[in-house]
Design brief:
Elements: H1 4-27, H2 29-48, E1 50-53, E2 57-63, E3 66-71, E4 74-77, E5 83-89, E6 93-103, E7 109-120, H3 123-128, H4 133-149, H5 154-159, H6 161-176, E8 181-192, H7 195-237, H8 241-252, H9 267-287
Helix pairs in contact: 1-2, 4-6
Length: about 290
Amino acid sequence: MINSISALLFVALLAAGAAVCVPLMMVNGPFGVCGLIAWIILDFVICSGLKMAAQWERGVVFRLGKYHTLKGPGLFLVIPILDQVTLVDTRIRTADIPAQQVITKDNVPVTINAVIFFKVDEPADAVIKVQDYRFAILQYAQTSLRDVIGQMTLDQLLSEREEISKIIEKAVDKDTAEWGLEVTGIRIQDINMPEDLKKMMSRQASAEREKRATITKAEGDREAAVNLAAAAQTMAASPGAMQLRTLQTIDGLGPTASNTVVLAVPVNVIEAIDGASAFIKSKTAKLE
């Protein structure tokens, strides 16, 4: 890896070598040229041993093809030619899980889109134990998604998306931990269903809402009937209550001339008739 520090060091050593070799070239041309070429090669080899890793990177060092150590972040030295360095990004990565067509437990075909969040927890294991950990974890997530969704019904899939995501996350994280990876989250983005099934679900939801509205209206009518019966009993037990209620109703109609109230039988007459009826009933009871 060529970085700014090794480039500056290369230029500085090259300038120092040129300062020594140029006078030699004036005295002995071939000897000076050979010395300058040898110095450039040595300069390149020395600078190639100076590596730099960013704060989010780790360098996996292999010496003669065998794992040696883990370096970084920052500047570190390796033995040129003998050591090879592979830099691994340890930040959280996001990968889209391609759309998967799955048959649910109740034989409904659905298409699932999801996204996986993961990071490299052990850089050495991620480089040594799996050839391409990005491709491997993505394929494993696809397989786990199909397996978990295939064990769920459509209603569970629509109402328990968060729980299903956690189940898939645990399954993937458990089996990929040996690769030095850590799954931080899996989220289901979209669930696509056949259009005829969507229409049926829409009709079902409409019928359910109509059912709840009918039940609510019936309960309201029942409560209103109970309250009206209680009000009638209260008014029957209070003399003049009916007359007061009638006056309140008339007053609520408003003072405008467009409102005309016609009482076929005055309230006083109705009360007099009720009183006479009660008197006659009491006399009849005494005679019997």
